[in-house]
Amino acid sequence: MAAELMRTHFHPYDARVPRLLLAVVAAGCLGLVAWAVRNALTGVEPYAWARAGVAALLWTSLVVSLLRLRPRDGFGVLLTSPGVVLSRPLYGGPIELAWRQVQRLSREGRRRDRLVLVLQEGMGRVVIPRLLFPSREAFEALAQDLESHLPRGPFDA
């Protein structure tokens, strides 16, 4: 039993579908930038430079998001005996939670494709979407590991 408590489980993120969608939209955005720059250079449109600037900013934000979602070392969910460490895909450092901070685990969404760690009162919740994982099987493995690590409620037998 003690060996089971000390074992760690790592579930890596590999958001292929969102990365593919971001790449397609970024390519379309780059086309809009080229079109707006061509119109600005030929003088066809008075606000073409503004449109090119806005499209370029949108393209830049899409490329940054695409790069932040790429797979890398330590990018995922790490379950340890003291708690859970979740990498934040688009923001700063990881979220570290002790098991005593997690009240319960629930599923949300029409296809139950989001895991929600409901934290103690006043602390909020943490949502883990299925799109961050390479397959449904990898997502289900995380859900099972989370259920096995979560503390039982006071009235559980």
Characterization of this structure:
This protein is α+β, with helices and mostly antiparallel strands and 157 residues long. It has two domains: 90 residues, PH-domain like, CATH 2.30.29; 53 residues. The protein is built from four helices and seven strands. Strands 1-2-3-4 form a four-stranded antiparallel sheet, covered by helices on one side. Strand 5 and strand 6 form a beta hairpin. Helix 2 packs antiparallel against helix 3. The N terminus is likely disordered.
How would you concisely characterize the structure shown here?
The chain is α+β, with helices and mostly antiparallel strands. The chain has helices spanning 2-6, 16-42, 48-68, 136-149; strands spanning 9-12, 76-79, 83-86, 95-98, 102-108, 114-119, 125-129.
Distance between the termini: 18 Å
**Main CATH class of the largest domain:** Mainly Beta
Total discrete domains: 2
Low-confidence regions: 1-5
The major beta sheet can be summarized as:
4 strands, antiparallel
| Helical fraction | 40-55%
Q: In the CATH hierarchy, what is the architecture of the largest domain at level 2?
A: Roll
Q: Per DSSP, what share of the residues sits in E-state strands of 2 or more residues?
A: 15-25%
Tell the overall outline. elongated
Structure annotation, total helices: 4
**Structural class of the secondary elements?**
alpha+beta
| Arrangement of strands in the largest sheet | 1-2-3-4
SSE sequence, one letter per element: HEHHEEEEEEH
Question: How many individual β-strands?
Answer: 7
The CATH topology of the largest domain is what? PH-domain like
Mean pLDDT: 87
Radius of gyration: 21 Å
